[in-house]
C-alpha cells in the first residue's frame, strides 16, 4: 500500500497560493481574445425578439425553482437602496435608483445565460453547476464588464443628483409629498424631469449597446472584453430598430417588475435574462 503523508502547513499554503495564482492568471488572460474566428453579426427582427422571449419563458418555467431562489437577492438589494434613499433624506434619488438599478441587471443575469446555454446543450442546469463555470478564463472579463456597468450606474446617480441640485435643490425636501409637489407644480421641477429623462435615456442607450450580447458572448466564447464590446455595438449598429424595440421591452418589463416593491423582478429578470441568451444566439454566429 502507498504510504500516506500529511503535508506541513508551509507546503499546504504554497500549494494553495499557487492555485490562486493560476486562477488569477487565467482570469487576467481571459480579458484578451483567444478566438481567432471573427464573429458574424446577423440581422434580427421582431420575429427574433418574439422567439427569444418565448424561449426565455420556456427556460424560466423549466428552471424556475433554481432561478427564483437565486434571483430573490436582486429585488432585496433594490428595495434596500430605495429605503436608504427615503430615510437618508435623499428622496430625489428614489426615481434615479429605480430607473437606474436595471443598468446592472446584465451582471445579475450572468448565471441565467449559462443555465440557458447548458439547457440548450442538454447539460446539468442547476444554479451551482452554472456558477461553477464562472471562473478562470471567464471570470476576468465578466468582472471587468460588470465593473464597467457598476461605474455607469454610480455615475448616473451622481449626474441625477447634480441635475436635482441645479433645479430643485440643493436644500433637501421634507418628505416625498413635498418633493412630488415641487416636481410637478414648478418650472424648475419640469426642467429637472426633462433634463433627467433625456440624460437617463443616454445612459440607458449606452448600457444597451455595450451589454446587448457581450455577457452571453463572454460565457460562450473566448473572445475577451474588447471583442465582446465591439460585437455588441456592431449588433446594435446593424439592427438599430430591433435594438431600440428590445430596449423598450426590457425597460417596460423591468419598470413593471419594480412597482410591487421590486418583487416582480423575481420573475421578470429571469425571463429577460434567458431571452437575452437566445437573442444573442440569433444575432451572432
Q: Mind describing the biggest β-sheet?
A: none
The SS-based structural class is: mainly alpha
> What is the helix content?
over 70%
Oligomer: single chain
Span of the ends, CA to CA: 54 Å
Number of continuous helical runs: 14
Number of strands: 0
H and E string: HHHHHHHHHHHHHH
Which whole number gives the mean pLDDT? 81
How much beta, percentage-wise? under 5%
Number of domains: 1
Low-confidence segments, given as residue ranges, are 1-31
What does this 3D model show about the protein?
With 285 residues, the protein is mainly α. The chain has one domain (9-283). Helices cover 75% and strands 0% of the residues. It has 14 helices and no strands. The chain has helices at 9-29, 46-71, 73-87, 94-100, 105-108, 110-121, 127-132, 139-167, 176-185, 187-211, 214-220, 224-238, 240-258, 265-283. α9 packs across α10 and α13 (240-258) runs antiparallel to α14 (265-283).
Amino acid at each position: 500500500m502507498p504510504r500516506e503523508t500529511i503535508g506541513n502547513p508551509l507546503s499546504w499554503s504554497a500549494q494553495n497560493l499557487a492555485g490562486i495564482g493560476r486562477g488569477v492568471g487565467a482570469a487576467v488572460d481571459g480579458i484578451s481574445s483567444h478566438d481567432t474566428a471573427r464573429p458574424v453579426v446577423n440581422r434580427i427582427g421582431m420575429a427574433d425578439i418574439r422567439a427569444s422571449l418565448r424561449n426565455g419563458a420556456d427556460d424560466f418555467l423549466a428552471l424556475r425553482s433554481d432561478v427564483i431562489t437565486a434571483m430573490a437577492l436582486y429585488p432585496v438589494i433594490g428595495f434596500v437602496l430605495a429605503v436608504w434613499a427615503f430615510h437618508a433624506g435623499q428622496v430625489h434619488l428614489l426615481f434615479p435608483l429605480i430607473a437606474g438599478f436595471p443598468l446592472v441587471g446584465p451582471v445579475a443575469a450572468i448565471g441565467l445565460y449559462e443555465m440557458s446555454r447548458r439547457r440548450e446543450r442538454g447539460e446539468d442546469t442547476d444554479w451551482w453547476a452554472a456558477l461553477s463555470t464562472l471562473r478562470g478564463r471567464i471570470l476576468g472579463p465578466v468582472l471587468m464588464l460588470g465593473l464597467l456597468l457598476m461605474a455607469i450606474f454610480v455615475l448616473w446617480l451622481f449626474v441625477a443628483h447634480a441635475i436635482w441640485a441645479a433645479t430643485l435643490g440643493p436644500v433637501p425636501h421634507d418628505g416625498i409629498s413635498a418633493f412630488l409637489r415641487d416636481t410637478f407644480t414648478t418650472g424648475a421641477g419640469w426642467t429637472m424631469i426633462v433634463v433627467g429623462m433625456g440624460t437617463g435615456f443616454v445612459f440607458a442607450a449606452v448600457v444597451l449597446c455595450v451589454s446587448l450580447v457581450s455577457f452571453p458572448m463572454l460565457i460562450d466564447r473566448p473572445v475577451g472584453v474588447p471583442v465582446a464590446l465591439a460585437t455588441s455595438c456592431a449588433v446594435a449598429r446593424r439592427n438599430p430598430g430591433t435594438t431600440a424595440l428590445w430596449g423598450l421591452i426590457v425597460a417596460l418589463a423591468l419598470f413593471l417588475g419594480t412597482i410591487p416593491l421590486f418583487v416582480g423582478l423575481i420573475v421578470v429578470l429571469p425571463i429577460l435574462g434567458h431571452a437575452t441568451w437566445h437573442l444573442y444566439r440569433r444575432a451572432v454566429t
